[in-house]
Task: inverse folding
């Protein structure tokens, strides 16, 4: 899902006024700070003139030099040049050892520079150092910002669970201060994470909230970049008309920043929209424009977006231009910095290109790389996808061997034809028999080799399945322990939970004790279990004995709430956490959070504390 590609670098407090006038009378450092900070994102070239003028002042205090070089790095971050960002922010750190409040902001800027370059591990280490300093300073706003940047790193590494955890930590720190300027940016990153997980509707809602905040704060670059992400989410949700309007507005707005990377991202998203709507010619032009702009800054996004463009060219049988794009991407040397998903997109695309151009060795190598990358990505469709790529790999391997065998046969045939005129019939027959025997033995050897490889592949897949089954069994046991614990705490729901758990346990035991059980039998048992409609009725009866007026009062006060919403609120009334509710209802933690968010939205309540207080009082 596509995510925010421009990372806003934090501007520290640049100057210590007491030193400014004492050391350089006549130069207003405070005014220079305000002007540079105001201009660096919207008109960075004017900001650069002020920064250079400040650094040219003689005998200024260390904090002035340190903060100015940090702002120099911010300028290059806006220009999409992470190497220059890293260079100047490192210079700033040499001046700030004794000033932790300034040093921590330079550390975070340096971390963002490494992340924009694709070095996620180094970025995470620097952000962890920043977290420690913010905790020591008891700076909740700075700590929340550091958590949000850590979340961005994990999101790029496709570790979405860790990313969401850090973002929720950050939001929890800032939720009491609704006017905090960092809160919209953190919500935007949470929206990016949901977009990457294909939760489009929730991502769209969050992006719209962020747009209001960025518009009010007059942060144009964040506003237009959020528009790009919103347009992408709308396209994925097949809301094409609105997506086109949003992406056009973003493209027009980003033109003022003269940032090639941002222009490339905007063009690529519009190209995706055109392709989704069957406008292939327009899509091709936009993809080409996107790659041209991304290549100017050697953006790490060349990998994933270049792979998508190569896939598009392969579909059009334009393998010549596909090979040119491969050359551009390879020359950028950004592959190892890209996300796993972008690497997968690229390797799969170039494998198909090499296959179509009869470069079998390169195709096989690309397919092998694809399998390796897929092994590291935890997705529901992982096993099926790996089998598909393995099939491609085996097909290409067999094709190469067949070509070699065919070439060998043709050589032997020509040799036999040349000698045919000179040899006696007996010699010709004998040679033919020998050749056939050799071919048979070679074919037998090749078949045995392929069978051995297939057996190894099957054994590997079997081990993976066994490990997955063991993991699922452990997860089932953990869920059973949680349910049993809730049974002891909530005796009023004991009958429902006992009946439900016993039915599930019978199915699990039947599966564990009978290796030959059929899936159809298990499905039949599960369907029978689903037909037992009285579980919630029993729960409602016992819950209403304790809280007889809860459901009616809640329904009367909030008419938009459905029966399922009131049942969900009943669980919240019992002080059950999102995680416990998700386990009880057999849904994901993220789905429970989403459900709670939508209920609050229907009730027109934004604050968690107010929501919990209302449920307690009803």
Result:
């Amino acid at each position: 899902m596509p995510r925010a590609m421009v990372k806003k670098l934090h501007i520290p407090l640049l100057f210590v006024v007491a030193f400014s006038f004492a050391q350089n009378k006549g130069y207003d450092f405070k005014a220079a700070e305000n002007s540079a900070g105001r201009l660096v994102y919207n008109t960075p070239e004017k900001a650069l003139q002020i920064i250079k003028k400040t650094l040219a002042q003689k005998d200024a205090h260390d904090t002035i030099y340190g903060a100015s070089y940090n702002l120099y790095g911010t300028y290059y971050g806006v220009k999409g040049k992470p190497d220059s960002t890293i260079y100047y922010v490192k210079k700033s750190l040499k001046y700030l050892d004794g000033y932790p409040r300034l040093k921590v902001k330079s550390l975070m800027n340096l971390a963002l520079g490494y992340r924009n370059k694709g070095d996620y591990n180094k970025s995470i280490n620097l952000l962890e150092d920043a977290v420690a300093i913010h905790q020591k300073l008891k700076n909740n706003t700075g700590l929340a910002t550091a958590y949000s940047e850590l979340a961005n790193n994990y999101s790029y590494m496709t570790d979405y669970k860790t990313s969401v955890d850090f973002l929720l930590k950050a939001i929890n720190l800032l939720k009491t201060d609704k006017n905090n300027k960092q809160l919209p940016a953190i919500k935007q990153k949470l929206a990016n994470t949901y977009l990457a997980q294909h939760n489009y509707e929730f991502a769209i809602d969050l992006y719209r909230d962020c747009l209001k905040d960025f518009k009010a704060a007059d942060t144009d670059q964040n506003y237009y970049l959020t528009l790009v992400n919103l347009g992408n989410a709308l396209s994925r949700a097949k809301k094409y008309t609105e997506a086109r309007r949003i992406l056009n507005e973003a493209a027009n707005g980003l033109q003022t920043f003269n940032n090639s990377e941002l222009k490339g991202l905007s063009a690529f998203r519009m190209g995706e929209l055109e392709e989704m709507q069957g406008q292939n010619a327009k899509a091709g032009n936009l993809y080409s424009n996107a790659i041209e702009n991304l290549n100017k800054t050697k953006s790490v996004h060349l990998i994933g977006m270049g792979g998508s463009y190569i896939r598009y060219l392969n579909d059009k049988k334009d393998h010549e231009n596909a090979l040119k794009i491969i050359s551009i991407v390879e020359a950028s040397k950004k592959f190892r910095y890209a996300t796993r998903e972008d690497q997968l997109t690229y390797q799969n695309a170039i494998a198909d290109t090499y296959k179509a151009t009869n470069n079998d060795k390169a195709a096989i190598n690309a397919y092998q790389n694809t399998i390796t990358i897929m092994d590291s990505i935890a997705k529901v469709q992982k096993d099926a996808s790996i089998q598909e790529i393995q099939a491609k790999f085996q097909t290409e391997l067999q094709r190469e061997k067949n070509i070699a065998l065919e070439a060998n046969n043709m050589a032997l045939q020509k040799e036999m034809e040349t000698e045919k005129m000179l040899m006696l019939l007996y010699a010709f027959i004998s040679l033919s028999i020998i050749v056939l025997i050799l071919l048979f033995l070679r074919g037998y050897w090749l078949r045995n080799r392929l069978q051995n490889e297939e057996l190894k592949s099957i054994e590997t897949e079997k081990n993976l399945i066994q490990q997955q089954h063991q993991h699922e069994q452990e997860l089932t046991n953990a869920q059973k322990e949680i349910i049993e614990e809730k049974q002891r705490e909530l005796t009023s729901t004991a009958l429902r939970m006992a009946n439900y758990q016993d039915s599930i346990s019978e199915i699990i035991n039947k599966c564990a004790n009978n290796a030959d059980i059929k899936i159809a039998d298990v499905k039949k048992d599960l369907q029978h279990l689903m037909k037992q409609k009285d579980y919630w009725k029993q729960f409602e009866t016992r819950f209403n004995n304790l809280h007889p007026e809860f459901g009616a009062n809640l329904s009367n006060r909030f008419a938009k709430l459905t029966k399922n919403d009131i049942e969900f609120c009943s669980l919240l009334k019992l002080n059950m956490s999102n995680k416990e509710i998700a386990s009880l209802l057999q849904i994901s933690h993220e789905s429970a959070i989403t459900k709670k968010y939508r209920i609050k939205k229907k009730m027109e309540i934004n604050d968690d504390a107010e929501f919990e207080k209302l449920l307690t009082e009803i």
Summary: Residues 425-489 form the longest helix (65 residues). Residues 1-23, 379-388, 483-492 have pLDDT under 50 and may be disordered. Residues 239 and 492 are 46 Å apart (CA to CA). The radius of gyration is 31 Å.
